[in-house]
Amino acid sequence: RVEILGLTTMMIRWEEPVEPNGQIRGYRIYYTMEPDEPVQNWQKQNVDNGLLTTIPSLVPHETYSVRVLAFTSVGDGPLSEPVQIKTQQGVPGQPANFRAEAKSDTSIDLSWTPPPQNDIVQYKLIYKEGKQGKEVVKTFEPVTS
Question: What per-residue confidence (pLDDT) applies to 118?
Fold first, then answer.
């Protein structure tokens, strides 16, 4: 079983093999965002004792494939079937190059460079009308130009 803990960490649990082929020395967890790559190219983590581990420093909003095997002093056992899990979407960074240009006495053009995340779903603009004016909040979807 695999579950997400926070934005960039997954927890993996497994059960001992029903019929181990010798004394189990530990378990090896393989994980990747590229499941078509050979397993030996996947990232791996060894667990000497226990049936649970966490893997930190994952990329937010990506799908990972995970496989587990047991190993003995003689060698590796068979790999489990792959399990897929998607990490959570992160909070975007701050837009860059924010600029305001007066167009008239009552309007301005705003422009900025979006943060590097590809999945921006909404922007929020907060401003005050006049010197002592009330705070106004506007939300809108991204528009590419």
Answer: 63
pTM, 2 dp: 0.65
Compute the distance between CA of residue 13 and CA of residue 2 in angstroms, rounded to an integer: 6
Rounded to whole angstroms, how far apart are CA atoms 116 and 47? 35
Take residue 20 and report the two structure tokens written for it: 């181990």
Unique residue bearing structure tokens 């060698």: 75
* Radius of gyration for the chain, computed over Cα atoms and rounded to the nearest angstrom: 24
Written as six digits, the tokens of 95 are: 């837009």
The pair of structure tokens assigned to 60 is 């937010």
Q: How far is CA 129 from the centre of its chain?
A: 39
The b-or-e profile of 93-107 (16+ CB within 10 A means b, else e) is eeeeeeeeeeeeeee
Smallest CA-to-CA distance from 66 within 53, 76, 48 is with 53
